[in-house]
Amino acid sequence: MPLHEPDDTDPMELVGVRLPAASDESTRTMAECFVEEFARLGYDQHAILELFRNPEYAAAHDALRVLGETHIAELAEAYSRAFRTWREMPKAFEV
Amino acid sequence: MPQVYNWQLGRPMSYPYEEHHPDHQFAFVMNINRCIACQTCTMACRSTWTFSKGQEHMWWNNVETKPYGGYPRHWDIKILDLLAQTDPGPRAWAGAPGDDPKQPYGTFEGKTIFEAAEKNVGPAGPQRVLGYLPTDEDWRTPNLYEDVPGGSEKGVSMKFTRKVEELPTHSTWFFYLARICNHCTYPACLAACPRNALYKRPEDGIVLIDQSRCRGYRKCVEACPYKKSMYRPTTRVSEKCIACYPRIEGRDQETQGHPMETRCMASCIGQIRMQGLVKLAKDGSWEEDRWHPLYYLVKVARVALPLYPQFGTGPNGYYMPPRWVPRPYLRQMFGPGVDQAIERYMVPDRELLAVLQLFRKTNRIIYRYKIEEGPKVFETEIHGRKFEQWDDTVIGYGKNGEELVRTNVNEPLHVRPGVHQNSI
């Protein structure tokens, strides 16, 4: 946020505006997309849910806050089931 | 005004010049489902072409966050608004997307920027092209506040919120739109220039400004709906994306005479971009070239769509629309082919999966591909449909039929260890 109250008439005063969500439906579509992407990468349902709980993943975390953990968990379960036999997440190498 | 046929609109339209088309056309596809706005393309272009005095505002390639941003600021909203004022009708598409190559997206019933200009009469008569000149402020700040709406705490200098989850974020969808000049089939910049300084190269359709003819009237800046023509105050002439034509001509040392993709394409770490040259028929339509990857994506699979086709310039940049974005927004931006494109992208068939693997596997231009069938490795059901993955091999060939790249659909997955060489 700016130091002072923004002056709408000052062209040098650039102020970002937070837009309201269009609808829960668009958030749902976006969350589903995230879940599918990570399921395709080999994440299981627990790893996907953990990712949504992590505030560092801002958009995913925001979706969890809007839609609730139950909804995300259901999505994670459905997609990880669909891609269960696809690929296993390899274990990290020990150094 | 002469009539030309615009296949993206599915109808003839007015344009200041008669039909005249190059043998090949520079074209590209960007899969914006994959763009992460790393701006590597932007900096690759910048460090090659626009690093000099007077070019500070010239981002021939830029990546903007939609729907919040645009460069120059609000470029698309402003031209859409101008069109709506001049042509207040519904600006709708008739018919439905189908197999007819003359009308793949149906027929656009509104007015293009050329047709609307005829009604926009000022003291000097009607405009050639409906447009506007962006202000200095519009050019000033690419990307500012696009991803996050703010910085430090209100009323306190340089005090930033500590917790990540407390940082201000947009509360709805967004996506990244990478843009360069579309090297349009019916360029608005070319149509507007009173000096005939702009021209379309007959060999590849690249649109250039003849720097010795240009007098800096900025009519091209005003006319280009995508705002990819830019005025340089230090030389008092306008400049624009040149599609890295020395590379297209094969004059870059790296490829020893073979056509090479542009800097912005070659540097794409997200592998979202593919660029090439498509064969054109005399009437400007794409000649059937079934095993050309761009022909396949645009004309066969129809997963890649032109950016704002309703402007009427016939842009040669095609985009695979982001699947999570509300459809009305996408239909306005990419036309009525959006629903079909997303349906196909979400459950890709065998050939689409293979062609997508060709993105960024080589810096040389692919003219043809071939698929060698491999075993089925996976099947499941997603979005109510069956999805199968085959470990096919896809091969890309160059201009003279030489093999450029050979890759498999089934990719290995590598995970970097938690502790690695440059761990802090």
Structure description:
The complex is a heterodimer of chains A (95) and B (424). Chain A contains four helices and no strands. Chain A is an all-alpha fold and 95 residues long. Chain A has a domain at 24-82. Chain B has 424 residues and is of the alpha+beta class. A four-stranded mixed sheet of chain B has the order 14-3-16-15. The mean pLDDT of chain B is 92. Classes of the chains: A mainly alpha (95), B alpha+beta (424).
Brief account:
By secondary structure, chain A is mainly alpha-helical.
Helix content of chain B: 10-25%
Strand tally of chain A, please? 0
CATH top level class name of the largest domain in chain B: Alpha Beta
Residue stretches of chain A low in confidence (pLDDT < 50, at least 5 long) are none
Q: Could you tell me which chain pair has the largest interface and how many residues each side has?
A: A-B, 45 and 43 residues
Order of helices and strands of chain A: HHHH
Instruction: List the domain count of chain B as a whole number.
Output: 2
